[in-house]
Amino acid sequence: CVKGRFGFDYVSHPHRLTQPLIRREDAPKVVDAVIDPANPLTHFRVASWDEALERAAAGLGRLREGEGDRALAGFGSAKCSNEEAYLFQKLVRTGFGNNNVDHCTRL
Questions:
Q1: How many CB atoms lie under 10 A from the CB of residue 90?
Q2: Which of 32, 44, 52, 74 could disulfide-link 20, Cβ–Cβ 3.0 to 4.6 Å?
Q3: How many Å apart are CA 46 and CA 22, to the nearest integer?
Q4: Tens digit of pLDDT per residue, the chain (107 long)?
Q5: 19, 48 in Cβ contact below 8 A?
Q6: Reduced to 3 DSSP states, what percent helix, strand and coil does the chain have, rounded to the nearest 5?
């Protein structure tokens, strides 16, 4: 398809995230916050991969403990390879314990 043949410019886009970011303590926690993609550090701070992954895992764990397995879902990306899509669905099905997996091309 056209996206697969020509849609690879995102890899070198200047707004592409190349390191983990975590919302700053003083940043507003609102859904409609306007964040400039050219300067995300107005709302986020740079974090290590270890810190970002630990925070993400802890948040998912709290959600799963409080709401159960069915509270989590996974939405894949058309930018992923087949191998990444396979690993993603495997994580959701075995790690989260449910079949709530979908792909953005179906949305």
A1: 11
A2: 52
A3: 7
A4: 666 677 777 778 888 889 999 999 999 888 888 889 889 999 999 999 999 999 999 999 999 899 988 888 898 887 788 899 999 999 999 988 889 998 876 54
A5: no
A6: 50, 10, 40
Dihedral sign from CA coordinates of 50, 52, 54, 60:
negative
Nearest to 73 by CA among 87, 60, 58, 86: 60
pTM of the model: 0.71
Distance separating alpha carbons of residues 26 and 23, to the nearest angstrom = 8
Tell me how far apart the alpha carbons of residues 44 and 27 are, in angstroms, rounded to a whole number. Answer: 7
Q: In the numeric block, which tokens belong to residue 49? A: 């991969």
CA–CA distance, 47 with 40 (Å, rounded to integer): 13
